[in-house]
Amino acid sequence: MSNELIIPTKADDQSFDLAVANGNYLPRVSLKTSNSQQCKDGTFSVNHFAFEDGSIIKDLGQEINVLVVSWRPIALEIIDGQPHSVYDASSAEFKRIQDKAGEPESGCLYGIEFLIWLPAIKKFGTFGFTSKSSRKEAPICRALLGKWASITPKKVQTARFTWFTPSVKGSSIPGELPTPEVFEKAKSQWENPTPAKGEPAPAADGRAR
């Protein structure tokens, strides 16, 4: 059918995203390493960043330029494939998960989660520094609050193991800012987190490095 029958809309892509938003939760951005199940399956490129929104996963490449918007502590426990999140670092539940994270195959993670804006795809997402290696980058990211940052994979090597972790540095490349409507929607989701039914749990990506 000819596209001559299509009537152009006056609304933009960000308006579309607002209208179809699935629940009061934010998409997640993560670095997929060789230990990620998608990389093992051959369905996702190793050491590329992923934008995960429900069952939809988008390849963002090996470098992302983001605006660092906010941060909060987070402790995660994966129960029956679903994430149980705690954001109060002073709570007994947070401490329990934090202590359990040191156990092998515990399904527990903790650290700092950031709210970021990705101008390349005009979307907000969360980015967690929840492994032993990545938590070292959290202070660098926090220092860039309200500023542009570049996040890339960084190789870490010991006598026995080699792995990759996110690395953060300031960026001089500004991007397009979100509309007020998109920002207010993300702000509401960030301040009132409610995981959507069926939201996939974040992967620990192997040993807690």
List strands and helices in order, with pairings.
Elements: H1 13-20, E1 28-32, H2 37-41, E2 48-53, E3 56-61, E4 64-79, E5 82-86, H3 92-100, E6 108-118, E7 123-129, H4 138-143, E8 148-157, E9 162-170, H5 180-191
Parallel strand pairs: 1-7
Antiparallel strand pairs: 1-2, 2-3, 4-5, 4-6, 4-8, 6-7, 8-9
Provide a descriptive summary of the structure in words:
With 209 residues, the chain is α+β, with helices and mostly antiparallel strands. It has one domain (12-191). It contains five helices and nine strands, in the order αβαββββαββαββα. Strands 1, 2, 3, 4, 5, 6, 7, 8 and 9 form a nine-stranded mixed β-sheet that branches. The longest helix has 12 residues, at 180-191. It is globular.
Total count of helical runs of at least 4 residues: 5
In the predicted model, the low-confidence regions spanning at least 5 consecutive residues are 196-200, 203-208
Order of helices and strands: HEHEEEEHEEHEEH
What multimeric state do the chains show?
A: single chain
Compute the number of strand runs.
9
Structural class: alpha+beta
Q: What is the first-to-last residue Cα distance? A: 53 Å
Give the helix level as a range of percent. Answer: 10-25%
Mean pLDDT: 86
Total domain modules: 1
Major sheet: 9 strands, mixed
Which percent range describes the beta-strand content? 35-45%
